[in-house]
Amino acid sequence: MITGGAGRLGRAAARALTKLGWLVRVYDRVGISAPDQECIVGDLGDTAALARAFEGVSAVIHLAATPDDDDFETQLLPNNVLGLYHVLEAGRLAGVKRVVLASTGQVNWWQQFDGPWPVSVEDPISPRGWYSVTKVAMEAAGQTYARNFGITVIAARLGWCPRTRAQMVELEESFHGPQVYFSPRDAGNFFAAAVHVEVPAGYHLVFAASLPRDHAIFDLVPAKRLLAWEPLDRWPDGAAEDVGAS
Hints:
Blueprint: E1 2-3, H1 8-19, E2 24-28, E3 37-41, H2 47-53, E4 59-62, H3 72-94, E5 98-104, H4 111-114, H5 130-149, E6 152-158, H6 165-173, H7 177-180, H8 184-196, E7 203-208, H9 221-227
Parallel strand pairs: 1-2, 1-4, 2-3, 4-5, 5-6, 6-7
C-alpha cells in the first residue's frame, strides 16, 4: 500500500512496483483511475478506512503528509504527526512486516549549505523548520516500531522532487537544489527497491536522491548498498514530466 499514492512520488512508486509484479493499493484523499491499481479514498484521520486499507497488506510506503512548512496546529500536527501514528498503528495491527517512511533532507538543512559534505545520517541534525521537525519525529517513531514490534523499517531522507513549475525554477536558482534533486524515475525505483529487496531486520536510515549535478551533498552509499539501488538521473532529467503548472 502507498499512502499519498495519488501524488507525484506515489505515482512513480506505484509504476515501479507494478513493473516488478506487485499488487498496489493506493490510499489517498484523492481518487485515482489506474487499471492495475486499487484505490481507497480516505484521509489519515479516518482510522476505520485505514484499517480496511491495510487488510492483506504486506508492506506500506508512507508518503501522505503536508509536504512542506505550514501551520503546525491545523496542518502539520494532524497530517504529519497524528497521521503517522494512525498509519503505524494500523499497520502494526494488520501485521505489516515492512514500513518505508518518507523523511526529508531538510532534517540536515544547514549542513547542505555550510558542509561538511557529503551529509551522512550519522551527522547532527539541523532541521529547517516545523515540517522537518515532524520528520525527525517520524524517524524516531520508525525506530520505536522496529524495536518494539519487530517491523523492518526503512526511513529515507529524500532529496527535492519539485511538484510545480514554480518549484522547478526555485530549485534551479538555489545553491543546493541541483545537487539534491530527486527525479520521479529515481524515486520510483528507490521506493520499489525499499519494498522488494531483502534487507536485514530492524531500522535503517538512508539518504535518497538523484545524481548531483556538480558535487555530492548527500551520502547515497548506504542506500545503494542496502537496496542494490543506483540513481540514473541528474537535474533536470525528468523534472518536467507530469508536473503541475502552478
